[in-house]
Design brief:
Number of strands: 14
Largest sheet: 7 strands, mixed
Strand order of the largest sheet: 3-4-5-9-8-7-6
CATH architecture of the largest domain: 2-Layer Sandwich
Radius of gyration: 21 Å
CATH superfamily of the largest domain: Bira Bifunctional Protein, Domain 2
Number of domains: 3
Shape: globular
Strand content: 25-35%
Distance between the termini: 47 Å
Length: about 350
Amino acid sequence: MNEPDPPIIHAPLLDRLLRTAEPASVSALAQHLNLTEKKTLREIDRLCAAGCEIHRHPQRGLTLVHSGLGAWRDYLAWACPRPTVRTIEVYRNTTSTQDAARRLIDTDHCAADGAIAIADEQTAGRGRLGRRWVAPPGTAVTFSRVYVSSGNPISVDQLTLISAVAVARAIESACGLAHQTISIKWPNDLIARGGKLAGILVETYPLSANARAAAAVIGVGINAASSPDELTPAPPGRGYPTTSLAAIGSRVDRLWVLTEVIRQLDVALASPTPRALLAEWRERCPMLSEPVRLRQNGQLIEGTVIDLHPTDGLIVRTDAGMLLHLPAASTTVVRTPPASATP
């Protein structure tokens, strides 16, 4: 892997601006960061050159309006450290971050573990079962993370479960939401106040350079700033309408959300056992012990959700009394009970 380029922004300064909604004077920022005021002003200019919009009030001080894409890579490298340097690519526009992450695997093989591809806009973003993921520029958090397992491979179902809990935790933490504000619709959708807020797509790839290792790409898409007229209604008779962080009253910077999601994913994927994550998944899932209608390989199945298995998928007792294990790769939910709305 190539050595990282030198940073173009002062990450601790951006961090300070991200963390506070109140204006901060140049002198206060300089004192906090142990910089001179002249140096602080130069670093503010560099942030603006990287695309950050900073409002300057002559009396009250500086307020970050939004972070700029040009600052994201440096900030994430500083805010989400790893024992080894991770590759971070930020695109203004790309077809799919899944494809960008796949290219990193093809180039770096096992060393691609932890690499991240981020896009402001995807022209061919995709969800599970070939569905499209559409997000206009500046409205979503869309990225893919490479995960390389050198031991026993982790199944797509298990990675989806781990990622869903981690992303739910991260959104609640970044946005100051109460625990379990975010529920999980099996297998890969995050629901907030009756609307689909985020989705997760896990795809696996062989690693020809190391027969013992397995690679996966975890794609995450979070509706952040979509306005009500950009949100879509629920499909007739099933599913959820879309929602966004802005629509539920959380107007935090996308970079702040992205940072917390990457941190939580790092922690969850490093966990030696997903038991605690599985227990939390159950707490967040409104489907357990509820009647559902599912489609597997073109066949409709009606029954009651009994449990979730981390490798075998959803466990359903059919109306005819049969106990089925339904993997996410071949199963889709047609109808579920409504998720409870959190005030």
